Structure formats: C-alpha cells, structure tokens
Amino acid sequence: MGIWILNGLTVDVNNVQAKKHILIENDKIAQVVDAASGSTPQTEGHEVIDAAGKLVTPGFIDMHVHLREPGFEHKENIATGTRSAARGGFTTIACMPNTRPVIDTVDTVNYILDKAATEGVIRVIPYGTITKNQLGRELTDFAALKEAGVIGYTDDGVGVQSAQMMKDAMALAASMDMPIIAHCEDDTLVVGAPVSEGSFAKKHGLKGIPNESEAIHVGRDILLSEATGVHYHVCHVSTEQSVRLIRHAKQFGIKVTAEVCPHHLVLSDEDIPGLDANWKMNPPLRTPRDVQAVIEGLEDGTIDIIVTDHAPHSEEEKAKGMMLAPFGILGFETAFSLLYTKFVLTGQWTLGFLVDRMTQKPADVFGLPYGTLEVGRVADITIVDLETEREVLKDEIVSRSKNTPFIGWKLQGWPVVTIASGKVVYS
Fold first, then answer.
1. pLDDT number for residue 39
2. Nearest CA to 330 among 338, 341, 322?
3. Mean of the per-residue pLDDT values for the chain?
4. How confident is the model over 261-284, as a mean pLDDT?
5. Mean per-residue pLDDT for 121-125?
6. Out of 309, 356, 380, 385, which one is annotated catalytic?
7. Per-residue pLDDT for 323 more than 90?
8. For 39-85, how does the pLDDT look when each residue is reduced to its tens digit (9 = 90+)?
9. Averaged over 5-21, what is the pLDDT?
10. Strand 381-391 relative to strand 410-420: parallel, antiparallel, unpaired?
11. Is the pLDDT of residue 281 over 90?
12. Tens-digit pLDDT profile for residues 213-253
C-alpha cells in the first residue's frame, strides 16, 4: 500500500505554484500528477492524505543542529530531537559533534547512526570534529570519519584558534573533497561576555561580545580557503562585517558558503526584554544594522541556506541567569512558521524563496540527494497549513527542553504532516 497526497499546492524557487497529486510507494516518490488536468488518481488500496488548501514541499533540511546525545541527554536525545524536528517539518538534519564524548572517532559516529536508525524518526547525518576533543591541538582521522559516514568536519561550539591548524585541516579536507564547517569566534574577544556589544549590554552593565570576534575568523578562514581550495562553510552568520567578507569572497570565486538562523533574521539585541537567559545564544543577537545585513545577505545569495542551530538546554540550566546559563535556544518547531509570518506574509519574500532555502539549496550546498519532489527520489515530504495562526505554547513543545524566546508569539504557517522516507512521522 502506498500513500496518495491529493490536491497539494507546490511551489518552486521561481515561486511558480501548481496543484499536484503525489504518490508515494515504498520509500520513493512514484508519481507526480498535475491536478489541473482534472484526472483523479486511482487511490483504491492506498492511504489518502487530502492536502487541499495546503502547501506540499520537499522535507525541510537543517544542516546545523544539536541533539546532545551522547553525554547531555537531560537536554535532548536523538529520539526526542528527531521528533521535535519532525514536528517542525524537517526530514534531514545534520548534528554537530560537541557531545560527550565528542564525535571524533568511528565508534561515536557509529553510535549516532545506530541510535538514529533505531530510535530516531528522521534522517540524521553527523559531522565529525576537526580536532580531537575539540581542543584545537591535533587533527582527527579525517579519512576514517569520512568512511564512517560524516558529512564534513567542524569544531562547532568553539572556533579553531590556530590559523595553522585550520589551514592544515582545510588542506586535508580539500584532498578528500570534504567541507570544513566553521564556528567563527576569536576566544580572546569573548571571555566573560554573555550578549552582544550593543545597547542591551550597555543598559545592563554587561561585557559585550564584539562583532569582530566572529568576522576576524571569517576573514582569516576565507584566505585559508582560497589557499587550500577547500569548500569552506560559515556557521550561523550574524554580523554585517561577516556578510561583507563572504560577499567579497564569492565575487572572487572562492569556494565559500554560509548559513543563517531564524533568530538572527528576526531579532536584534534591542528586542531582549530583560535578563532572561532564554534570549542568550551564540552568536548573540546583534544590532538592527546587523539584522538588516544578514537579511540582505540571504536575499542576494551571499548567505546560502537557513539552519536552526537547535540548541536545547534544561530549564534548570537556563534559570541560572544571563551570566551563568549556557548559550543556545530551540529552533526546530518554530523555524518555518516564524519566517513565513515575518517575511512571506509581509510580502518581503516569496513562498518559493523560503522553501528553497530550507530544502533544495541546503541539499545543493552539501551534495545531498534530497530536497525535491521529483519522481524516483526519496519520499521526504512536508505538508504545511499556511492559513492557521497559532500561539507558541510551552506545553506543546516536543523537544525535551523548552528554551525559546518565542513562547507566546502568534505565528502562521505550521507543518501538519511530515513524511520521511515514505513514512508518516508527524501528523
């Protein structure tokens, strides 16, 4: 028995919209039929999902997430994290390696993949670390990690402080046709600072994290990328200076790609209401000027994709306050609705633009065979109710943690069905 999705609205990158019937058999898309033709598919013997009035897209792809397992299961685990992602419409996620132990050995990669296969509900692709234990002192075994199934190398959570270490990593990754994914942060500029250097920090007498802490590493790594020829991908871009450097690099043909998070597109440090650590994240919320710069960077292609940087923490940890609480907020369950409400409903973006940056574009950047509704492809599909407005409620969050600044926000455009590899994993 297969699944027929009937009368769904599809949209492409050019915002061309059409009604389609889609048949899923086994784990593949078997047919895509133009509903405008008037022909009704033979649905007998199949499950039927009526998607009339709803958006049908490829499953969303998130190339920057934290599942916290192994080592921090009180925050999240692969089972809860993948279910949270499925509720947000995601069918493929790439998990960062700053777990305990970190993902720097074949055994840990195998652990992640085995757990995802037995306890997860969507596809999980791990990154491996650049350096052993993320200490920045010795490279990991890139070849063994690639063979085990990592999609790239990153020390996300910390920046690689040594330029020589980063250059060596890039040269090795380039020789293997693998990407380096960089958390850009100069440690000497951020010690003891919980928020961005801006109006909020001044108002509350806090040390601020300056923009150049990120941009210095972006500039350094672009030069190293040019020298080594590696595919260099910049994590969670948040500053005007970083956007400017990446734009310049692309103009010169350097192989650099970049990502941005929903919270850096919709919030600035001027929006932080008080010392609530659910507004504490890394990179921090920047100035309105930086927000405008990253929006423009995404719109003009300087920034390639949207990611969530889903970073769960327990309520006890976040209750320690702005200075002591860990950095990070949830991202899976509000990503699409937040951006649809903020940018598509206001007319700033087309629906096709948003869908592309969460589906086909990340697949293209990382060479993944997902992100489309083509016949023969894996049946990763998300169905979205574009009409219903709903409040973000803490009690409805599927993640094991609840750390988000968006509680109480009214958003529109909610995923209602998620199908991963031909199976309904959220409805």
1. 76
2. 338
3. 97
4. 97
5. 98
6. 309
7. yes
8. 788 889 999 999 999 999 999 999 999 999 999 999 999 999 999 99
9. 96
10. antiparallel
11. yes
12. 999 999 999 999 999 999 999 999 999 999 999 999 999 99
Say which amino acid occupies 228. Answer: T
Q: What is the 3-state secondary structure (H, E, C) of the chain?
A: CCEEEEEEEEECCCCCEEEEEEEEECCEEEEEEEHHHCCCCCCCCCEEEECCCCEEEECEEEEEECCCCCCCCCCCCHHHHHHHHHHCCEEEEEECCCCCCCCCCHHHHHHHHHHHHHHCCCEEEECECCEHHHCCCCECCHHHHHHHCCCCECCCCCCCCCHHHHHHHHHHHHHCCCCEEECCCCHHHCCCCCEECCHHHHHHCCCEECCHHHHHHHHHHHHHHHHHCCCEEECCCCCHHHHHHHHHHHHCCCCEEEEECHHHHHCCHHHCCCCCHHHCCCCCCCCHHHHHHHHHHHHCCCCCEECCCECCCCHHHHCCCCCCCCCCCCCHHHHHHHHHHHHHCCCCCCHHHHHHHHCHHHHHHHCCCCCCCCCCCECCEEEEEEEEEEECCHHHCCCCCCCCCCCCCEEEEEEEEEEECCEEEEC
Distances from the Cα of 322 to the Cαs of 14, 194, 233, 274, in angstroms? Answer: 43, 6, 29, 9
* 288 contacts 272 by C-beta, under 8 angstroms: no
Percentage of the chain exceeding pLDDT 90: 97
> Is 309 among the catalytic positions?
yes
Task: Read off the pLDDT band of 126 (50, 70, 90).
Answer: very high
Residues 176, 119: Cα–Cα separation, whole Å = 31
Pick from 8, 1, 12: nearest CA to 361: 12
Give the bridge partners for 50, in sequence order: 6
Specify burial of residue 191 (Cβ count, 10 A radius: 0-12, 13-18, 19+): exposed
- Cβ neighbours of residue 248 closer than 8 Å, sequence gap 6 or more: none
Which of 325, 331, 290 is CA-nearest to residue 309? 331
Looking at the DSSP assignment, which residues form a beta bridge with residue 164? Answer: none
Amino acid at 82: T
Sign of CA dihedral 197, 299, 309, 130: negative
Beta-strand relationship, 90-95 and 208-209 = unpaired
Position of tokens 């300056």? 210
Q: Tell me the domains of the chain and their CATH numbers.
A: 3-56+377-426 (2.30.40.10), 58-366 (3.20.20.140)
38 has pLDDT over 80: no
pLDDT computed for residue 36 by the predictor:
85
Q: Is residue 210 over pLDDT 80?
A: yes
